[in-house]
Amino acid sequence: DTAVSQTPKYLVTQMGNDKSIKCEQNLGHDTMYWYKQDSKKFLKIMFSYNNKELIINETVPNRFSPKSPDKAHLNLHINSLELGDSAVYFCASRGDPGELFFGEGSRLTVL
Amino acid sequence: GENVEQHPSTLSVQEGDSAVIKCTYSDSASNYFPWYKQELGKGPQLIIDIRSNVGEKKDQRIAVTLNKTAKHFSLHITETQPEDSAVYFCAASISGSARQLTFGSGTQLTVLP
Prior knowledge:
Helix content of chain A is 0%, strand content 58%. By secondary structure, chain A is mostly beta strands.
């Protein structure tokens, strides 16, 4: 049973479109994250939610909007996609005292 | 905020040799230092971690050392095998805090058969 699952695994879309990535964790953790991994493998945090409340919002364009309907889910919606949004997006949840559990990633390609 | 630097960015070793990856951190309040392994097409996965009250920790072929005074920590892999080939990330944070982990830039380790 997958601990952190995100869908879809691959998205290919045109510039200007809107897309969503869904994430669910079954670990009972309170804190969830979205990370962006660029082509150089650098992991950059985008957002963090703790029990449905936004606690970290790094400098991310407001075209990116996270939504947490409950503490087990953290979805990412992206409006007006740009070429530079192409990356792998990872959802993660955090246990105590700090281990992160990552999903398998969603590779977004913007054409 | 915390800044974590990781070296080298790429590392190639012969199977059976040892590999060492080094990281430095800037925030003296950080007390939790995990290492993650990312295989191709997968998400990063924790392989070992160390807290600031410990200087060294071993788990089979992998070990991590921490020097709090110098603010650096290292990952050591002995008797490397081809399946050790992956990207390795170090990270630092304050344990028990809602603050996020700060990751290093990653090391692509290639173990040559």
